[in-house]
Specification:
TIM Barrel, six-stranded parallel β-sheet, three-stranded parallel β-sheet, 14 helices, 9 strands, about 10% strand
C-alpha cells in the first residue's frame, strides 16, 4: 500500500540549521523502516471506516521515543552516539504516521552525557534544551502545552509534541524542579523509573516501601502546576499510593496486565482498578518482550492486544489507550546495550521460557504501530466510537482535567 505523508510536513531534517560533520559529529542513524513496513490488510469497506475514524477522532500515543538508534549498535559506537546529547528526532518518519499527538519521553535513562548511570539533572536539561532548539527551527511538530494544541495540530496536518520524563530521579530532593520542568514544557512526569528515588520505590525493587513524604509533596505539586502523573515504572505499592494521594486523574502510560503476563513490568488488577477508579487512563506497552502472553509465549500484536482486552474488560473501555513505547532503530539491541540501566533483566523475568523476536511485527516503530493498532481493532469488530475513545478520546478527557 502507499504511505502518504501528513500535509504539514515540509521536509525538515534534524538540526538543519547546522552543518553536519562540522558543527556536530556525523553519526549514521538507522532507517526508520529498517525491518520493513508491515501493515495489517483490510477490506475496502474497512479501509473506508479507518479513514473516517482518523479524520474524526484525535489519535494520541501517550508514550514513545520517536528518535533513532545508530546503525552501528556495537557498545562503543552506540555509547559514543548517546554521549553526544544530540537526539535525532524522526520528523520524516512521523510524517508517515497517523498520529495527531505524541508524548515524547526523549533519552531519559539512556541520557549518559556526564554519567553512565544516566538520569542526571544537567543531562536531562541538556537533552530537553537541545531538542527544544531543534523544535523551534521546524514547523511540523507543534510543542503541545494545552489540549487545544492537539486539535490545532490535527487540523493543520501536523503533530502536537508533548515532552515527558519517565522518572523523577533528576529532581533529586528539590520539589521546585517540578515547576522548572513545567516551565520548560514538560507535561508528564513519572514518579519513579525502575530504580527507587526520593519519591518512592521502583518496580525492580524486591521491597516496595511505598510513596515517601517527599513523594506525596511532589504529587501535590504536580497537581498544583497541572502536570500529568505517570506510575508506569513504580513498584505496585508506590504506584497505588500515588494514585490514591493524587487529587486528579493519573496515567499509567505504558504497562500491561499481570493477569496476562506475570512479570514485575506489568500492573496488577488492584492498581489498574485504582487508576480507572480515580478517572485515569492506562496505556498498553509494546516494547520488545514486555506485553507477551501465556497463550502466545512470544511477543506480537495479538499478545499486545490480549493485554488491551484484559484491561478493557477489567476497568472498562473509557480507561484504556495505547503507549507503545517504540523508537526508530533496533529496539532489541538497545535493550541489550542498556540491560542494566533500563532494568530489563530485573523486570522482565518470567517462570516460563519464551520465544524472543528481533522486533515486534506490526508494532516495530512509532509509525508502524500507529497504522496497525486501529486496523487490528477494526478487524476485531470494534465500533468507530470505541476506537475513537481508545485512540485519543479517553486521554483528552484526562488532560482536560489535569493540564492547567
Amino acid at each position: 500500500m502507499n504511505f502518504t505523508q501528513k500535509k504539514g510536513y515540509k521536509g525538515y531534517q534534524p538540526y538543519s540549521y547546522l552543518v553536519r560533520g562540522k558543527d556536530y559529529p556525523a553519526i549514521e542513524w538507522s532507517q526508520w523502516d529498517w525491518a520493513g513496513r508491515h501493515v495489517i490488510p483490510l477490506e475496502p469497506e474497512q479501509e473506508a471506516m479507518l479513514q473516517e475514524i482518523l479524520e474524526r477522532y484525535p489519535y494520541i500515543s501517550v508514550h514513545e521515543h520517536p528518535d533513532f538508534t545508530p546503525v552501528d549498535m556495537s557498545l562503543e559506537k552506540f555509547f559514543d552516539a548517546e554521549r553526544q546529547g544530540r537526539d535525532w528526532t524522526g520528523y520524516e518518519a512521523l510524517s508517515y504516521s497517523n498520529l495527531d499527538c505524541i508524548f515524547d519521553n526523549m533519552l531519559d535513562g539512556t541520557n549518559i552525557i556526564s554519567s553512565p548511570g544516566g538520569w542526571k539533572w544537567i543531562d536531562i536539561i541538556h537533552d530537553l534544551g537541545m531538542r527544544l532548539c531543534d523544535i523551534a527551527h521546524q514547523d511540523f511538530l507543534i510543542q503541545c502545552k494545552k489540549v487545544e494544541d492537539i486539535f490545532r495540530a490535527k487540523a493543520a496536518g501536523k503533530i502536537a509534541w508533548v515532552p515527558c520524563i519517565e522518572g523523577a530521579q533528576p529532581i533529586e530532593n528539590e520539589v521546585d524542579r517540578i515547576d522548572i520542568l513545567y516551565g520548560l514544557g514538560i507535561r508528564q512526569l513519572g514518579v519513579t523509573y525502575s530504580e527507587s528515588n526520593a519519591l518512592g520505590s521502583g518496580l525492580k525493587e524486591d521491597c516496595d516501601g511505598g510513596l515517601t513524604k517527599f513523594g506525596k509533596a511532589c504529587v501535590e505539586r504536580m497537581n498544583q502546576v497541572g502536570m500529568l502523573l505517570d506510575v508506569s515504572h513504580c513498584g505496585q505499592k508506590t504506584a497505588y499510593e500515588a494514585v490514591m494521594h493524587s487529587k486528579k486523574p493519573i496515567i499509567a502510560s505504558h504497562v500491561g496486565a499481570k493477569g496476562v503476563w506475570n512479570t514485575k513490568r506489568m500492573a496488577g488488577d488492584e492498581l489498574l482498578k485504582a487508576v480507572a477508579g480515580k478517572g485515569g487512563v492506562i496505556g498498553i506497552e509494546a516494547a520488545p518482550h514486555t506485553t507477551m502472553s501465556a497463550t502466545r509465549m512470544t511477543h506480537d500484536i495479538d499478545s499486545f492486544m490480549e493485554h488491551f482486552e484484559y484491561v478493557k474488560n477489567l476497568v472498562g473501555i473509557d480507561h484504556v489507550t495505547f503507549g507503545p513505547d517504540c523508537l526508530y532503530g533496533d529496539h532489541v539491541a538497545l535493550h541489550h546495550a542498556f540491560a542494566a540501566a533500563l532494568s530489563t533483566g530485573e523486570t522482565s523475568k518470567h517462570a516460563q521460557e519464551y520465544q524472543e523476536v528481533p522486533f515486534v511485527k506490526y508494532l516495530e516503530n512509532t509509525t508502524e504501530a500507529s497504522w496497525n493498532i486501529p486496523r487490528w481493532l477494526i478487524r476485531h469488530g470494534y465500533t468507530s466510537e470505541e476506537i475513537g475513545k481508545v485512540l485519543g478520546g479517553n486521554t483528552i478527557r484526562v488532560l482536560e482535567e489535569v493540564w492547567a
